Queue: 3 jobs
Job 1
Amino acid sequence: MRKGISEVVGLVLLILMVVVVSSSFYYWYSAGQSDAQIKTESFQADIFDQVVSRTSSIIDAVYDTNREVNVNNFAEYTTRLCADEKSIPMDASDIRLELYEGYGADTDIICAVSGFDGGCNSNSTTLFGILGGDSSTTGIYIVKSTDGTTWTTSQVSSAYSDYGKFNFTYLDLFVEGNNDTINPENMLLMGSGRHSTTGNRKSVLTIINNKLEGSSYDITDLDENVTVYEDAAMLQDIPGGPFNLFRGGALVSPADSAPKAGILTRQFTVYDTPERLPGLGAGGRNFQGTKITAIQPILRGGAPQLLMGVTGNVDAGGVGFIDETQELGAGMELNYASPGTICPYNIQSFAQCGISIDPGACDLSLDGISDMLYVPEFSGNSKVGNSNPVFIGVNNLTNSTYKLPSIFYTGYSMDQSSIHCLNLAPIGVDPKYEIVEMKYHKQSDQVLVFMKDQTRTPGFQLVAIREEGGQYDIAALSPPVASGLIPITFDTLGDFVFISGTNRTHAVIERINVTFGSVGEPVKVYSNDTYPELQKFLTYTPCIDRKPYCKEGCEAPLKKGDCRALTLSIEDSSCDISKYAPETTFTVRLGIGQFFQNLEIFTKKTGTSTEVNATRFN
């Protein structure tokens, strides 16, 4: 306690020296000294060690409200520090901060934090589903559950309140810049809908956070009436450079969405106008009558590339195939069938799948690629350079006697691609089934492959891929399951697998128990009589209590006589002030190392989002 009093006395003497700078600050601290001392007494002993070295920066703090109203960025507290008397260590672990609402005697402490290394204190897992289908109901609705039993349905996008008949093609996690310490982990939703009055089609590009708040981006697209995006990926086209959002899809007929040509696009942020990569097709592949249905970041020779899965529109002369980029910036593909290109398909493994591969033509017959899944949890396979695997879901792989869904795999990081085939024929997969999605199930440590009857007859099947000693074994967890549900998508929550789809009039969710080697009977846990389909599922485990993070200014010690900006990311942490009203005043007490302490006051102002053409919705 004596130490705390001596610090306060020393601080008052220093403030007297800077009273010309701000007499109002001196009045605040003198009037509120006793009360403030009582409120912070328990924190001083643990957080502040020695006397202040600088108090001249009094009302210089900035709180970045722009970032608070942007869905992609955490709000920040920024101040300018100067080492007037001695150097300051500036290590993130040595930063201590107390944040108060108000100033003077009437202050309430919001947080007291020691260490700004970042990280997560706690998180929560929720299963989200997006409702859609050919219905006259308008607006985007989402269903969610944390236990798989109790479900909540709510509207999340007033931006699309005049649109219905949604067809959602993509829902997955998204982090702007690919750094979830600096930017939040949200959900990226893509698809299309039609205006309830005019019938005009509109592309959906929406980011949704874990609080079901977000932004819809009315970007200038290539032509939103004739573009459909099927998959997305964040990656660097230049090692060490910024992460860009790549999207794969197609130019389509505005009347029936039939694909006319596969496309790849790139944009620097989600709200930028996408650039169509001009090199696609320059490698010799024909993308007419196709759509790019799956893209997966890979490393080839240490360089980032995209593995592409293409589904063909047979009526338009398109064929399905697998390929990859060789020049990511332009999107030019490698083209396995080009003379001089080493064919990546492992001839022996494909022979086991009943497929003969001509190493020169390097071609095989398939309808399309439904999904690709990188599984870092599996050990590296010696057949693919001991790299962790990327699994590829293939529909209607064709040989001389039958068509059958199949699983291929390749390595994530290799000098050149090597693709192997896992034969599903011996495990009793029904040829009329097609692969929809693949997801890693942590509880059973296996990849689950979800298949449905392509004739839209009720029923689904699950296939499991297990890893043992770098080898990948497959097993049918059950025969095709008889069910009244026409399945569309699936995901996992805990020990359970949740299947969603339609019974032709209602969106329905069924739950089954999954263990290694078997599944339980389906149990219906949700039905919606407004929307006819539940089209996309996503299990989402965001951090709900972040540790504040030093974003800028902690790289090196601050030398005596120098000044530097210090930026602390505080949103979604114990210091979060995003819910406080504009014009609220805050007091910040900042300590670094043993000898530096700074006191500042700032007022929260109304912010305008810096994200271009963003519509915020709740």
Note: The two ends are 47 Å apart (CA to CA).
Job 2
Amino acid sequence: MKEIPLATQIKASDIYAVQQLGISSLQLMELAAGAVVATLKAEGKLTPNQKFQIWCGGGNNGGDGLAVARKLYLSGATVEVFCPFADQLVGDAAWQWKQVQQMPFEKLSHPPIPDLKAIGIDALTGTGFTGLLKEPLHTWIKDWSTSGQEVVAIDLPSGLSSDSGAVEGPVVQAQMSISFGYPRIAHYVYPAAKYCGKVIIADIGLPVTPSTSNPTYRFCGNSKWFYENLILRPVDGHKGTSGSVLVIGGNNHMAGAPLLTAKAAYRAGAGLVRVLMPAIHISALYGFLPEAIGIPTTEENAFSIEDVNHIEKYVSNTASWVIGPGIGRSPATQMAVIAFLEMLKKSAHKCVMDADALYALKNELPILTPDCILTPHPGEFAALLDISVQQLQENRLEYAEEFVREHPCVLVLKGAGTLVVSPNENTGICTLGDPVLSSAGSGDILAGLIGGWLAQGYASDIAAMLGVIQHARAGEILAQKGILPMGLVRMEISQIFPAITQALLEMGSQNISNQNDF
């Protein structure tokens, strides 16, 4: 994975480049501006006489914008510049303003009326911005964001904080964001990410050095990382060395969920999969997945506390457990879930907690260990936190990281830009995926993939990210084959399994190239 630096680290890297590498800060600004112009040209946006309206703030981001304006004009574009805080500019940004004043293009004294035939360049706030916008920026950005103009943001859209996925006020809606060296957290964590458009990372030779004031790193999962973390199987390997998975789930009405989970565990490479499910559904398991081993519950159509003793003999030869797909929320079932977890905690086994099993945790969170992987969708996680889904979605990253700090476990918060948060303070942000996966059964499959990777001996956080990336890439493959989000209904969910296998083959040989592979 590539590191996603915090704003403090980006500032430290600038200082390092100037003080240790002898690159002047003005050179860095010129390199950044040149990269923006080169990207616009490569993306087909810099055509003869194309008009650009450039909004420049009072800091170095504004200086970048001024340098871009000069270079665009020299490339033959029509340019208008709005720099309302020119009298506040210092250093390199002030130097850029002096150069722009000598250029014959228009310097506006008032906010431009967005020309829908022009491209707006957003250089107002930049990486260092935090908090809330003050007037007049608040009003300007609010009006600009609703204008419909095509906008390219330098670093990230104004109004966003680099280190957060939260949105606290109006934000410029960009169709493209051009950043330098490395991505920013806001590029890929929602809801901030939806304002960034297509993210392009331009390499200007900028080194990123760890910041001693904040050592926490975020990581960005991608296909290259997947390839680098695969462990090759020995030539004399067999099903026993590939690990076994125990899936616990399925009630009267949701027998299909654990079947999907079990099949996914096999597709991730598990050597053997057992399924504890109500006895009345065991025949369905063998019809769907004959290579699995069914374990009937002690009661014919429900889970009970007796099932804990019933499966005790399987604990020693089971590498990972997946608890919850379709298991239901009856009081007896929820009691059984907690008893399963207590058994796992004593035996130090790894497990995935999914779906209805998560509801049993609400008053039992101290039972969690770093070997537990929770895979909630936003509704399930919001219920666990006792907040609304809207509250959660407005600040996904902060809520997820705070939860893991308080209750050490690995948390997979599903959704666009799925987060994998682990107790070691590394947060994985999945940059792959497609809405085609927004269907019943998709989450059961993800839980099975993670359980399958766990069974093969991967660390909990690595197994979680491997499953997330494989699942997300499978969604992209389905979309490329013409399957639309509204067309993937439950009776077609089996289409994902060939795509999961294709994703593993592609990423296992590092065959695909994705713009998010930094």
Note: Confidence is low (pLDDT under 50) at residues 210-215.
Job 3
Amino acid sequence: MKNAAIMRLPLGALAAAMNLINPEAVHCREQIRDWAFFYREKLNGRGYPFHIDAAGLSMDVRSIAPAGPIKRGRGMKLLGLDLGTTTLSAVVLDGDTGALLKTLNVPNGAYMTPRAPYERIQDADAIARRAEALVEALKEEYAIDAIGLDGQMHGIVYVNARGEAVSPLFTWQDGRGGERFGSGSYAGALYDRCSAHVATGYGMATHFWHTVNSCVPRGAAAICTIGDYVGMRLTGRAEPLMHVSNAASLGLFDERAGNWNFAAIERAGMGTGLLPRVTGGYELLGRDSGGAPVACGIGDNQASFIGALRDMEGTLLVNLGTGGQVSMLSGGASATEELELRPLTGDRSIIVGSALCGGRAYALLEGFLRSCAALAGYDCPDALYEEMNRAGLEHLRDASLPRVDPRFNGTRADPALRGSVCGIGTDNFDAPRLIAGTLLGMAGQMRGLYDAMLAAGASPARRLVGSGNAVRRNPALRRALEGAFGMKMRLSAHREEAALGAALFAMTAAGVAPSLEAAQRLIRYEGERP
């Protein structure tokens, strides 16, 4: 029986339930006994009859201990926590109006000195301490009713049986999987053994390296993502619970079954003993020290998708930061060499096309123009982006522009591919037209990924939403994207889409909103009134 259903029974019914349980099932009998005796205790020690606080209650009891009912409607506050690679962000969402009442950002600052050229690691406990400090700072100002979190995907942390980190966070940038192994690489060897592609930096490629080299940390009982680990720290859990959106990001995952590809992992020689339980639903990890329910952590890409779209059906999300992504609900679309299917919840996925060089293409052009100015003897202390944006906007409709392929970092399928500039003539070889051509090239790359989605079976989008600093700060790029897609682009009024998405997920997991779609109705776009 579910905890919530059990707790609606009178104590006499609980005793009767105990008698129905197999006497050999001692653990179950003790669990129900604890529910009966302690379910009115509170995590702050002010419950009854024993006034036991969180430290004296088991995780099962902590998950249902009534630190006060969850408020619904006016006055409800949701906290969203985004654990990024470079920045940790937290927001407080008003559950009535959808307004972001507070936003806090702190540097991640947890990178550790690498011991080898391929290593990219962060201090998991340092991240957890900074995250906990953000939560406590916001709880001092607001009565928080539920907490949601998301985090950087693909990387892994090893934890022991007490839920303590016994390793650093091996981030998505870690290069172990690309190291030489046999006639190829560790990631290549995984493909040979499992017939499944696992990219370098994905958790299973990293774990494979540790397994082959006998480097799995002593005492490791499970692997988890950084979001899972922070959730464990907030709730006192000893075992991770991994959302499907994070689990799939590690590789060797069976999307149809919604669980690990156990057979492939066994064939790789890694064993399955360190794999945590996976959930595709809206589950709670437990409650924090103040009694607020904490939702299972989700992947940052999925959190951004949730937090940017008021209506997921029929909407295409274009995100341009350093990289670039186009995302939409997959419908009947299939994954391809350039498109990924990423689980959103147990029954839905998003299809994602990624550009390794998204907004960075514009930054490269800014650096080139700056170097030209320096060659002519001019000092440019400030960035040139505002001037570039004005020039690009003025020349976007010119009949003759250079054709710019912005794939300067290659693609996931072909990392060796490089960008190009062609179609240069005597009438268009100048900085303003090169800027405009680059903007059209960036928009064209996003449109190409969308066309690949349509070819893979996705339904045409009816709405276009943009996110990311490159889109927000550059009206010329927005104009180019609108031309490429033939739709007006809307921008979320909220700047921290991932943290907002985590808060909306928590709103659903805590039962405050009847569905994720209902929670997303709080999202507003720029120019709209609350």
Note: Confidence is low (pLDDT under 50) at residues 1-27, 63-71.
